[in-house]
Every structure is written in structure tokens, then in C-alpha cells.
Write a structure and sequence with these properties.
alpha/beta, Urease, subunit C, domain 1, TIM Barrel, eight-stranded mixed beta sheet, eight-stranded parallel beta sheet, 22% strand, binds N-(iminomethyl)-L-glutamic acid, binds fe (iii) ion
Length: 418
Amino acid sequence: MAKILIKNIKGIFQSGESLPTYKKGKQMDEGNLIENGFLAIDGDEIMSYGKMEDWGGITDWRDLEVIDAEGKFVLPAFCDSHTHAVFAATREEEFEDRIKGLTYEEIALKGGGILNSARKLQEMDEDQLFEDALKRTNRLIEYGTGAIEIKSGYGLTTEAELKMLRVIKRLKEASPLKIKSTFLGAHAFPPEYKENHQGYIDLMINEMLPKIHEEGLADFIDCFCERNYFTVAEMEELLAAGAKYNLVPKVHVNQFSIMRGIESALKFGARSVDHLEEMDTQDINALKGTDCMPTLLPGCSFFLSIPYGKAREMIAADLPVALATDFNPGSAPSGNVQFLLSLACAKMKMTPIEALNAVTLNSAYAMDISESHGSITVGKKANLIITESMTALARIPYSFGENAVETTILNGEIVYSK
Ligand code: NIG
Ligand code: FE
């Protein structure tokens, strides 16, 4: 298998053999940076890295590709731990409605929003859905993404939810990205169950979950716990059923209101609680001392003009923070992690290093791929970004809207180069 040597690297971010599983509190501002370094890849794994002066060479030079990264940084490829990247159609008309003054929640109550996406996805055939999603997710590689979590939740019938999850399964095989899948049947109540919530919960528990389990279609289970969507009690019933199939929760909570969904998700061993635009001290205290990753989605705050998550308060409370794009056609139609970093720094006052930790080590943890992704560690997958030549790492969030990535390497192969 091919070998790659990257030499004269200005800075290697997030490298180490004894990094914590995730960084929290003050640790979040530690970059574990090696200046003037080298990194060697053997096959699909990181073989060695260190300071240039410690480069010991390799004995077998056959098939070795050498990249001179003078003035450039090397980082772990970004891990995007929360997306809805499989969908049938974009929703520009709702964007215009919001520009004219309607809110996201008002549009949803009129039958738009998630139900709008569900109608379109139910009509689209599986192959088309797959082809579109493959193209859409491949483009993320150009911006440095190396791993993504993708949710179902635009199906809302057994047939369409299974279709979505099968598409995600096919993407796992066809894409160079590392992909994890999440069952989000509890994204919205389908219109036919508007007056019969229990009927839909029963459908998910008795029909969808057993089939999903049988085909091995989901790694996690999610629920949109929010006013006008799922109550805490409804979420608990679903998470309890998911637990029987060993589905760990990663849930949508506290987007518009505080319903104590965080405490409830923690009881079920949630890997992450996501959104958190609305948070109070009780929620922050509940997360302390747990291994649950609070995940902020500033792209959604930006696009819907809702509050940004209180990253500073969480970090001050010694919590970890992960960041994800929430890539979806309604509340965050961009999967660009670099723009996310700009928002995190400019709007939530995270330092560039904190934000970079939040999209590498911490988001890898949030999607349970820490063993193989999220840091530059010997034996982990060679999923890496080489930046353009730049003065400092802070250039990535600083130059918002630009693409600082020059090369993306996934599984030891150069899959994108400017
Ligand atoms: O994370 N809030 C729930 N789900 C998505 C939005 C889905 C949509 O509008 O299509 C989110 O923001
Ligand atoms: Fe989401």
C-alpha cells in the first residue's frame, strides 16, 4: 500500500499518544501543536509524526509520495457529528418566508418544515436519494470533512424511514467519509397522527425499530424533544424502546425551549445532547460529571436568527463542547465546517483552538469514533487536512467564507487537492 510523507509542516494540530478522549473546560484551549513537523502515512493509517529533527526515515522508499507542507498546517479531518444530509429537496421558499417575517416554528405549524421535506422524500426513489446524497456529501470533503453522522427523520412512515436509513447504509459503503447513522423517526408527528401521538410512537416502537435492528440500519437513536414536537415523556418511551436494541441516544433538545429533556436524555446514557440554544443553570449542572457531549449548532442559530449556544458558560463550568453543522434543508443548509468555526469564534466567543477541538477530538467522541478518528495518533485512520500556507491556525475561522483547505487525505488517500 502507498506511503505518504508530509514534511516541513508549519504546525501539526491535535497530535498525541495520550490525548484525553475529549477535552473539557480549560483543556479545550490546548492545541497539542507540534511545530516544524513531519507526518508519515502507511496504507490507511498514521504511521508516525513528530518534529522534523526527529524524522528517522523509513527503510522502504518504494511507492513513497512526499508532500512538502512548508508554511502549512496539518489537522485531523473534521468530524461533523450532527447532520441531516440525506434529503430530497432544498427549501428556498421557506427561506423567503422567513425573510418576510415568519418564524421557523410558524412555517412548521402551517405544514412546512420537516413535514414539507418528508412529503418530498416519500416520493423520491431510493437510488435518486442515494445519488444526490453521495454528491452532496462528497463536496464536504473539499472543505475538510472526514466523518459525518447522518440522521433519518424525513421519512416518517416505516417505508420511508427504512428507505432513508438504507441510503445512509449505502453511503457508508460508497463514500470515503466515515459515516454513522441515527434513527430519527421522532422528528415530527406525521399529519395522520396529529391527533394520535401514541399511535405514531407505537408504530416506531413496534414496527420501525425491529426492522431497523434486523437490517442493522442505525448506530444511534434521536428524538426532537421540543414544544409542538415530542414531549419528554414521549421521548422517554422511545429511548427506552431503543435501549432494548442497544441504540444510544443523541438527541435534539433545547432548540427553542427548556423542557428538561437534557436530564431525561442523560438517564438513558445519551452520547450527546444537541442544539442547546436555550440553556439554564440547571441544565449546565445536570451535564457536569457526565460523559455526555453537549453539541452546539451555530449554523442553525445563524440561519434561523435564534440565540447562539452559551459556549463560554459551558466551558467555564468545566464542560466539553462539540460543534456540528446540523446540515439540513430547513435550519442549516450548509455542511461547511469552516464556516461553523467562524460562527463559533465570532458569535459564541470560542477561541480558534477551542473551536478546532470541538470539531475534531470532541465531535469524534460525540459520534463514537474516537478510537479511529478525531486526532493525529499512531494507528488512527489517516484522515487529515493540509491547509493552504498561512500565518496562524486562527486563519481558518478568521477568513470566513473562504476555503483554507488545500488537500484532504481520507483513509491514507489524497481525495481532494486544490
Ligand atoms: O436540527 N430541529 C429539528 N431538526 C432540524 C431541522 C430540520 C428541518 O427543518 O428540516 C434541526 O434544526
Ligand atoms: Fe438537527
